[in-house]
Batch of 3 targets.
Target 1
Amino acid sequence: MGKSQSKSSGGGSTFVSGLRSRTKSGKKESSSESTGFPSDIFSENLSNDRAKKIKIDPSQIDFGFQRQFHDEYEVTKLLGKGAFASAYQVSPRETSRFYGRYDLAVKVISKTSLKTVQDVRWLKQEIDIMKLVGGSINMVHVYDCYESKNHVYILMELCSGGNLFEKISKGDPYTEKMAAVLMGDILRVAEQCHSRGIIHRDIKPENFLFGNKLMGAPLKMTDFGLADYCKPTTKLMEISGTPYYIAPEVIRQNYSLKADVWSCGVVLYVLLTGKTPFHREDDRKHSYKVVFRRILEDTVDFTRDPWPNISEDAKDLCRKLLCKNPAKRVTAVEALQHPWIKQGMVHSKETEGSSRNPKIDAIVQRLQLFGTYSKFKQVVLYRIAKELATPEMEEVKAQWDKMNFGNVAEMGTIRLLDGLELEGFTVGEAEGSDLLKAVDVMGTGKMTFEDYAAAILDWREITKDKRYYHLCRQVFEDFDREKCGFITKRGLKEVLPGPLSDKDAKKMISEADTKGSGKIDFKDFVFFIQEKLGSADMFDKRLSSRYRNSFPKRTNSFLRKLNLLPKDAAPDSSGDSKRSISPMPPSGEDFNRSLRRDEEIEHFKEF
């Protein structure tokens, strides 16, 4: 059912991810079910049902991760402890590539907690998914993975501002305007997952962390332990999530991506009222199945206090998110277009009463979008961008020149942050470093104009250019090192920057190989470039009008030295509150923890 146990609602952890353990199986399995250990436990040919029945000894577990964690990092502070996982703040040693960073944490999972082959596969999938969505600065970032004989170490971004549940529980005064801003953040990261074919399955306030303790700190999604791959047409059957936030169709074991949208609706209900829609004061006395029955049968109440004091727009969005029929429920993208969310969106000061180019407002969004592409796709777009000579390219060059006040050939993190600040954006120093690494196509450690152009160009528009097809052919032929009419693993390894293993090359080939031939023809190549380009709108703009005071002041800014720093502006505080949020009432622990994937839940068919 749920894969792992979440940190409890009362946990005061500042760790970047939920303290959720790999779990013990809900059923005892006979020794006969443990026979037939596969040679490749990550093979797609091994079904999940079969993998759940194959027991595994810790000594058999090898993810292929690096082994020198304690050589590179010193554990400095316990952040939280669960049954099978612990979280620590760490300090990088001089041998670490992150030496000097203070904002790192590690999630340590005991290999003894991985009882079956499927437990191992789930952990690997969780790590893969976190890396897949890591190009966004509103997702908790995974930097490296290590392992030892007995443990797995996931090195992650440290978010020290606590989680959203804690803020609500303390009764912090969120106005409707601020609730709309936070809900926009939550819906955007949900859509980022959905656009990549990922369902989170555990969207709740506990799984949204504030980057630091400053007022207005950015909100980041975490805890992908229950996440799974899911196409829009896929139907999942595994009951997984946290009882108060589970959608009706999940209980009925027939659901898809819109189950996350329901959970977003519950979060909105909590932001506006301080409690979940199906919470009752005596829940501690009941099983979570009672909550499931309410979710299936009861109507969401929009009449009792404080709903009379809440705006009609807020009620309307909440109703649309909490529509019990998933076919009629809005998508995350549609919800982001709702008037209540749009009125909460922060705009740059320059756009007020002016004709600022909307493409400039999207710079940080497009950098994030480009950072989510595979290295293969990035290199292809980089090479096409180098040959383009269009009016849009001239516009991008003008933007680069304006940001590049020192006229340097390559921007490091500090120059990039300064340039963004000149254009009206505020990005945290660690975030800027992560963003630069994500878009550094050739692996130089800095951003060139070619890197910038490949990320900033509107590729949906570029595909309409008459030279585009010719440039695609030119890049394809360069990748076709064997001159056989196909891109092969050998071609990728010769052209892509840095060392590339056979396994990684094979994975990249499979991204574009629609025929399963192990190589890419030109038709597949063109389709691969244009497929899933995505929309930059689902990413945070990081406008200074919202985030100027949300990060520690940088002391290494070239702008300060040259007196070029933009004038300080107070955070956007427009929009009066209709009400302040009441404190979250205490509720049963069973209803605030995630159900484990293999937790035995009897008689579900009654629902």
Note: The longest helix spans residues 176-195.
Target 2
Amino acid sequence: MRIGDVDDGSTVTDFLPAERARGITIQSAAITFNWPPLADPAEDSRILQAVQKQALPRSALSHRINLIDTPGHADFTFEVRRSLRILDGAVCVLDGVAGVEAQTEQVWNQAADWKIPRIAYVNKLDREGAAFGQTVREIGVRLNGWPAVCQVPWFEGGRGKFCGVADVVNLCGMKYEAGGDGKVIERFNLPQLQREEPALAEELTKARAALVELLSEHDEIMVDAFLEAEEDHLAITPAQLLASIRRCLMPGDAKVIPVFAGASFRNIGVQPILDAVNDLLPSPRERPHAEVSINESTGRLDELLEGNMVAQGSTPSKSGKKVEAAVPAMDKMLKGCALAFKVVNDARKGMLVYIRVYSGTIDRNALLYNTNLKQSERATNLLRMYANESVPVQSLDAGQIGVIAGSKYARTGDTLIACNTNKATPPAPLDRLQLRPIHVPPPVFFASIEPNSLKDEKDMHDKLNLLLREDPSLHITQDEDTGQTLISGMGELHLEIARDRLVGDLKANATMGKIAIGYRETLTQTSSPNTRMFDSSARGDVKGKAGCTATAEPNSPDVLDEDYHDDAFRFEQDQNVVVVEAPSLDKRGRPLNDDAVSLPGHLTLSEVQTAFTNGALAALARGPAFSFPLRNIKVVLNIDPAKHIFGSETSYASLTAAARLATISAFREVHSAGGSALMEPVMNVDIAVDDASMGSIIQDVSSSRGGQIVSLGDNEEAEAEQQSSARNVDVGKIYAPKDPFEFGASASLGQQINKPRTVKAKVPLKEMVGYLKHLRSMTGGRGTFTMSVDRFEKMTGQREKALIAELRGGA
């Protein structure tokens, strides 16, 4: 194993060419290693006995660690989301100069959704302007938890070069060799520090007292230990402190956040943070069982295995309600259960499916059933990954992360199960088992992809499919009018990387057009009822004959519907509502009066409602003006069996086609009367800048870019303190060691002037294209921003006229 460097592009986990060229992490990478390195078996046995007697910490015993390095850029949020859900613990790496950045808060909150125990590591303390104490306070304010300082930075002479760390738990100092690889460490106990570094020793004792006091507020066992030690903070043993921190971490609510210090570039503090992973973070066996779902029922994996899970039936009873039934114990039937959380196409090994095993064992050559795709395939090749290198293994046990090489079907988010039978399809309800589903956020940027020649078109689409298996947050659509293939993503950088992967790595002969914005269309008027008939005699693509009547109108999400029949079927998606009415039929599709006609025997009311809904959704995907998807629309579809159903001639597909034609007709009627409008995405933007640049940034956003300032940097700390008050995190009570520049008044004044601020604003997405380069030029390269979709807003006036002229000019 070698030591890599981000600046040199030689890190083990950043192995893609684009990652090494840009110096950032783009895709998550998995690596498995032992820490500490394995000793001889006799030594391991002696260490194990010492650990069990608490004579040595857990970190003295070698543990197998499955590490996943995730991106930090906002464009790759989905990459972080799909990795977080399979983790048992996390280390949040912070920049000691920038502090807690806006994207850090986003990822921290995502980890909170899965209740993942987290520790914080303040990195880059060797850089000019690094502020460990200030970052600790920001952790309390912005991450809404109590920082438990477990290490204090060691600066030569109190304000010189960063040379090591002081361990608050073990009351010792670790000084690293200047310019070394981090392996040569000079250790000092507390008496030695008191003689040679009295200021550091005094800070270390303050930190120990603060740590014990903080743990005593959240852990009753620590209170008892403190009293037994006659209220002497220094008499608490390291084993007692580590056990108390673990108890505070296990719930995953981040009430207490252990904080460590270091400078990875100079290999300072790396071994202690790895020891902290072993000492503090939970093993897979100590974590709650994974959430599972069967149909609409949810529970825990252990409940399913033990027969304590109750699931709703897939078919309703005569009363129309779904029947609940106990699921029989599946522990003898289920041999292994895993989640495919990432798919990567490797030029040498083929398609690599990264899996996390949650129960049992996945063996080599095991028959795996994909519950999402309803397909089976064999795991012919199991690997344990070391970034882009691999080692074959015979099996993967619960809690382990590995790779299935050469999978033909598995995608990100698929659940894979192995049963103790040789049947291709497992018994119910295992065939419907879902592990931890994940929501894919909607894309906001898109660009056209065109093959260089007609003969390259099939190859391009094949490689686009490979790209989609790797990254489900990318979307591929086909423009029916122009025939163009459109690729959509989360941001400019996201699409640039997708282009690099497609053209550079997958060698597709294609060209990506200019990055554009995904606008929406909406209606401002209500249409009259539009009836359209579909007849396969006039169209050969779909067989059957059916009709539908559709009415389209603007939808206000805040207004409740009270005008429609109680039994009307409703479906909502992307602020659109589809209502399917059958006023002449009851819930079973039977006529309500003598004049009404019932549905034919091969169709049920539920099937007709679903067919009509799918037809309306297909129509909503393309607006009447510029073929953008429609939003804030209500479509009302009417079923009249006497007029719309033609016995055995009417099929599910023909009903869908009729509903689509009727809905499109209603949209075109409103558009021709001038009742349509364009909508643009408006983003929530968090811009992190320093005080010196804040004024120009605010003016640029509010004046040049038509944005609305939500809160200024002056209110940021007050807002964060108010947010953290729910947990009673009093910033004044947070212990944080002094930073080197705090010793001088001028340095303290400089800190006040250049204090980081966050400007929150709502800005149209069009104005944010290319904003990162502009922001960096305005802030000397120090400004960063994150953004997410807030809403789609109707365009009016000059902005709409300019966009229409641009769209028509480009057409």
Note: The longest strand covers residues 676-690.
Target 3
Amino acid sequence: MKKFKIKNIIIITIVYAAVLSALLLLVNRHLLNNDITRALDTSNQVQLFLEKHPNVPLPSSYRLLDADLKNEETKKIADGAPYSRQLKDGQIIVTAPIYQNGQIKSYLSVSQDLTQTIFIDSSIIFFFLIIYLAVGFITIERQRKAALFSQNIIAKIKNIERSPLTQSYLISDDTDQISVALNGLGENIQSQILSHSEKKENLYEFIEFFSFPIFVYNGRGSIRRTNAAFKNDFSDTKNLDIFSPYAEFLQFLVDKMLHPDIQEKTFYFEPISAYYQVRITPLPELDNRFIVTMMDITRYKKTLDAHNTFIANVSHELKTPLTSIKGFAELLENEKLTAEETHHFASIITKETTRLMDLVHDTLLLTKQNHRIEKKKTDLSLLIQSILDRSLPQIREKEMTLHSELKPLSLKTNAPMVHSIFENLIENAIKYTPEHGSIFVSLTKENSKIIFSVTDNGHGLTEIQKERIFDRFYRADESRSEVPGTGLGLAIVKKNVSDLGGYVDVISVLGKGTTFTITL
């Protein structure tokens, strides 16, 4: 058995460690960037809120700083930076300027907890170590098997030379290129000796192993053989007339009798609502017959159509705010306006920009593929309470009543995905509940399942609206244009709940309100 040199092992280990270090660096940098982005988003939301409610006191994690304040953070902004950030005691502190008429009016400092990376870093290191050990073990095992194989391969070749028709196939669980080549040699020799009828019977037996429809027909339009999948999707028949309802497909089969070449084409079989990718291959050695394979691609086509529809919807939704921003920006650039008009147009541009950013953010959340969901123990009651605390200014503005019943429950789950679920449902309840209305939020546990519900006494939903409420860009009341939103919130809720293995239920009565219930 060939042994690895110590030098090679050291080089591979160093390279592997370098890759691990680079990955850890990238992961930690990505998490830090996410924390910065989250803090900046919060800062932008607070600034927008302060524009409407300048006298509302802020929580301790937010501080308004005078424009005249001079320190390291404000100096960075004065030097041209759009914001400054500090990392201190497990927190990130982001300071952003607040502008008025192009001048810095004040600064807003936002403090938030940094994402803990110890668990993630440890998991990556453990995962890489397992891979390193596994690869080492597999490499050693392969070297051992290669040594054993080399001792037997010559004997196998001599056996094929002496009696090629009696040799069994060499391919086993330990298939390698040499065995595959020897097996191909044996098959080639055997195929030249097999009779015409044996070829035909072998083919007919072979097609039964496939789970998609296959049939063989001849130049006279007779179906000579079908497999079980074909009989299940169509019927057990001996004539091509079975495809009379599918005129285009039948014409395709007839054309192949005159022009027998390999060709693929996709057909829609309307009576059974299915798409099939059809491939016809001539069999000149079997009485000029043709073998037809039919791959069901209905799910792929529907997914592609849904993708195209989603792209069209996103493009339409992006066009509206961009048109408004462009139009009002041109007015500000080319028209002589009063200060009041300038401020009004600028506020519209800011509103549409925020709408555009929200749309892009929600679209990214909705299209993100959670192939591997990181889960850790999360205090759900604390998470919900933090969302409610941040929502209090909006609730007070509409003079609404908030009731909550939150059991102290924790769950091993993905905190950002759960936060998005709770936040979207609570924000929707606030948006669509009229002034002086009431909202009830609860968190309980039943039969080892976590139950979260949000109830409002808004306008309620019709049965048709309930069927479409989770569709992308659908809003139950399009006429209420004053209600902000992207139309993606509930679609994100449904996707996250599904990815986490839960389900969502909606109960609504027109004129009385709606209850969303999440079970995890």
Note: Confidence is low (pLDDT under 50) at residues 165-171, 478-482.
